[in-house]
Amino acid sequence: MIVPSHLHRAARLHGPRPLVICGDEVRTYAEMEERTNRLANALLATGLHLGDRVGTWLENSIRCIELDFALAKAGLVRVSLNPRLAAREAEFILADADAKAFFHDAAFDGSVAELRPKVPTLATVVRIDAGRSDYEEFLGRGGAQPPGVRFDPEHLYCLFYTSGTTGRPKGVMLSHRAILHVSYNLCMETGPWGTGEKILLMQPMSHGAGFFVLPYVFKGGTCVIMPQFDPAEVLRLAATHSIETIKLIPTMLQRILRVPDLEKVKLPRLRAMIYGASPMPNEPLRRAIEVFGPGKLVQIYGQSECPVTLTILPADEHRLDNPHPERLTSAGRAWTNVEVRIEDDAGNELPDGDVGEVVLRGPHMMSGYWKRPEQSAMTVRNGWLRTNDIGIRDAAGMIYLLGRKDEMIISGGYNIAPREIEDVLYLHAGVQEAAVLGEPDPEWGQAVVAYIALKDAETDLQEILEFAKKSLGFKRPKRIYVVSELPKNAAGKIQKAALKPAMALRSSALEAHE
Question: What's the total number of domains in the chain?
């Protein structure tokens, strides 16, 4: 099967049911089937051919889902741009993908005017304004019959560009096969369990949130989309729509925990809060379990190259009375049809408890990097995908992530994992955010330094250093820099490469006493 086959099936089974809700807009399964047929046919009528790339730069709306299914039906390859990208980043991605058509919201008019002359392959550009007149006019050109384009599951569904934390973004080639297996994995482990269940999505639909639509199509469920994230609005919508599942990232969950009178909010239908994309500090995680109840939170870990479903820390591990409390600091165990192991630099599997690189293989892996065969061969070796994440596997198969391979700090001949130090800093009551990295040091080679955002600007930094020293010994930070907020990329991940001493709010860093 291919992705659009499931929408066609769901439209026959659940035609009048709402597939997606966004604000006052609702689209049923039957409406989505017809409109995406029209849009697919209109796209093909412009002269696009099987496998051509089409860019989309959209804020969260129903159009995100319409375009995804329409492009899949036409056999075209989606190239989604994150709404937070700058014009130069969008230009690079569209040019690298050789995009031939482009749909964009009016909010990006200025950026599109800047980049369009620099991407000569763009033959068709459709603007979506508040009234959606251009978009609706374009859609109306197509017939309501299925487009009838045939291809197999290995055909590309999208180019999913990496967040570019270590250089230029790379186009990850994800096939229909990969997208379907991500969805099958989610259905097996996180639901929905039955027809009519609802999920609340607030991340950009162009990235993390978009993977959660198809599982709900499988079961005749409903996706409620937020145009923008607002912590109080999350709670209101969850109550109004009797939401069973909420998908978010740790930063969002921490902001929800700061909503006034949170304890008074009643969400009787809430079954799961799925978080991922970055580590969740232990103390806010424990607080979330206290507020929303045991057995409701679910952690997922994945990468662009193996989306969403690499490991899972399931709901039954999210309990304060867990007999294995250390598991709350883990990334969980491999999904049912995914193999995960730890290897050394030579590709040898390491025993449980040894530190090495997390590698995996499974049916949802990428087909490679777009136009980058050498990097593809370096990343996938003998069928195993190398994640560049350093971790440990315990005897129960739980994976503990220690940081990126290229972020490992070597100080005085010792390998120091940033995640270990960050976890301790998050235990301090005054720390809101923390990121640890190595700075050049004439004596140690690299010195461990921490960039933190504080809950209270007057917090004593020396006290934080002493707090860290008690738990970490020689691994504790030698310097702390206070910043207003840690820089993040368009996917919400902390950009350690952007952290510089010049960003510090205080005039000098404090030295830890030996």
Answer: 2
- 197 assigned to some structural domain: no
* First vs last C-alpha separation in the chain: 63
In a domain, 506, yes or no: yes
- Among 138, 157, 175, the domain-final residue is 175
Cα–Cα distances (Å) from 291 to 211, 261, 296, 341, 495, in that order, read 27, 11, 10, 34, 30
455: domain CATH number? 3.30.300.30
Confidence of residue 164 (pLDDT cuts 50, 70, 90): low
Strands 18-22 vs 25-28: parallel, antiparallel or unpaired? antiparallel
Dist. CA 270–CA 296, nearest whole Å: 8
Q: How many CB atoms lie within 10 A of CB 383?
A: 8
Crossing angle of helices 176-190 and 3-14, rounded to 10°: 50
Band (pLDDT 50/70/90 cuts) for residue 495 is confident
Query: Tens digit of pLDDT for each residue in 89-129?
Result: 999 999 999 999 999 999 999 999 999 999 999 999 999 98
pLDDT number for residue 414: 80
Which structural domain, as residue segments, surrounds residue 422? 408-511
Q: Cα separations (Å) of 437 from 130, 445, 446?
A: 44, 13, 9
Those residues whose C-beta lies under 8 Å from the C-beta of residue 64, and which sit 6 or more positions away, are 56, 58, 205, 206, 210, 225
Residue ending a domain, among 175, 197, 230, is 175
Q: Is residue 428 part of a domain?
A: yes
Mean per-residue pLDDT for 485-501? 84
170: domain CATH number is 3.40.50.12780
Helix (H) or strand (E) holding 380: strand 380-381
Using one digit for the tens of pLDDT, what is the confidence trace for 7-53?
A: 999 999 999 999 999 999 999 999 999 999 999 999 999 999 999 99
Query: Does residue 161 fall inside a structural domain?
Result: yes
Residue-wise pLDDT tens digits, 358-412: 999 999 999 999 999 999 999 999 999 999 999 999 999 999 998 888 888 988 8
